[in-house]
Design a protein that fits this description.
274 residues; alpha/beta; Rossmann fold; Gyrase A, domain 2; 2 domains; seven-stranded mixed sheet; five-stranded antiparallel sheet; 6 helices; 31% helix; 24% strand; globular
C-alpha cells in the first residue's frame, strides 16, 4: 500500500493569515506528523510501503524531510513541478489525503479562501460547477484511479467537502472561519484530537476496502471556465491554444483528457502572472 499526502497551509490548525511563515511551517509539520503517527500506531502501518508527501504551499519550501517519520515518508519540495500540488501522484497509490486545504475563492466566512492564486483567480468552474483546489486536485487523483480518504481544514471548507463527497468523508475540522483573515482557533489538543479521529476513520475505510466510494472523475469532455481578477490577466491567458476569451475577465477551454485540462489550467495561471 502506498499513500499520497498533499499538504497546504491555509487549512492548517492555528493558521489565520499570511504572515508568519516560520511558525506556519511548524504547524504544517505538526498536523502532518499527527496523521502519520496515527497511521504508525495502527497495525495498518505494516501494510504501508511508502507515504509520499507533497509540500503544496507557495514555493514548496515549508517542510523538512528530517522533521518527518524517517523510514517510510518521502517529501516533494520546490516549485518547478508539472503537477504542482499533486506532483508524483499516479496509479500506484491506494489513496490520497489532502491536509490543510481551504475553501474556494469567494467563499463566505472562510479562512484564507482562494483558488490556486489569491492575486489572480476570482473563480474556477469545471463543467459549470464552481470548484476550489480540493475539487481540481481530487479530479486529478481520480484520473489515476486514486480516491481521497481524508481531508482537513476549517468549517467552511468542510461544507464544500460534504457537498462534493458526502458527510461521511473523514474530515478533521481544525478551526472556525470568521473572515478571510480571522478565525476561531481551537486548542491544540482539540485540533489534534480531530486529526487523530479523522485519520482513524480513514484507516477503517482502507481496511474495509471502502475508499473507492470517494473516487471522483469529471464527465468528459471537461470544460474549465476561469475568471481572473483583471481583464489583462484573462487576455494574456488566451495566447495558449484552445483558450478563448468569453467575457472581459473570463476564459474557457475544453479537453477530452482531464490531465491535459489540468495542466493547461496551471499553465494559464502561470502565464497570467506575467
Amino acid at each position: 500500500m502506498k499513500l499520497y499526502i498533499s499538504i497546504d497551509l491555509e487549512g492548517i490548525s492555528g493558521v489565520f493569515w499570511w504572515g508568519d511563515e516560520k511558525e506556519d511551517a511548524k504547524r504544517m509539520t505538526r498536523d502532518l506528523n499527527i496523521v502519520i503517527q496515527t497511521l504508525k500506531q495502527d497495525d495498518i502501518w505494516h501494510d504501508i510501503e511508502a507515504i509520499l508527501v507533497s509540500d503544496s504551499h507557495g514555493m514548496g519550501r515549508n517542510l523538512k524531510i528530517g522533521d518527518m517519520e524517517p523510514e517510510k515518508t518521502f517529501l516533494i519540495s520546490g516549485s518547478s513541478r508539472v503537477d504542482y500540488m499533486v506532483e508524483g501522484l499516479d496509479a500506484s497509490f491506494t489513496a490520497a489525503m489532502f491536509l490543510g486545504y481551504h475553501a474556494a475563492s469567494g467563499s463566505p466566512q472562510a479562512v484564507l479562501d482562494h483558488t490556486y492564486s489569491n492575486a489572480l483567480v476570482k473563480e474556477v468552474r469545471i463543467n459549470d460547477q464552481v470548484v476550489g483546489e480540493m475539487q481540481i486536485n481530487a479530479y486529478m487523483a481520480g484520473y489515476y484511479g486514486v480516491p481521497l480518504v481524508l481531508l482537513s481544514g476549517d468549517n467552511a471548507f468542510q461544507q464544500q467537502v460534504a457537498g462534493f463527497y458526502d458527510k461521511d468523508m473523514p474530515y478533521a475540522m481544525v478551526k472556525y472561519g470568521i473572515s478571510k483573515d480571522a478565525a476561531v482557533l481551537l486548542p491544540e489538543k482539540k485540533s489534534e484530537a480531530a486529526l487523530v479521529q479523522a485519520t482513524r476513520s480513514a484507516i477503517t475505510l482502507l481496511k474495509q476496502g471502502g475508499q473507492k466510494r470517494y473516487l471522483k472523475q469529471p464527465d468528459t469532455p471537461v470544460t474549465f471556465t476561469v475568471t481572473f481578477k483583471d481583464s489583462k490577466q484573462a487576455y494574456t491567458a488566451t495566447v495558449l491554444p484552445g483558450v478563448e476569451l468569453t467575457q472581459g475577465t473570463t476564459v474557457s477551454f475544453t479537453s477530452q483528457d482531464y490531465r491535459d485540462a489540468f495542466r493547461l489550467f496551471e499553465a494559464l495561471v502561470v502565464l497570467a502572472r506575467g
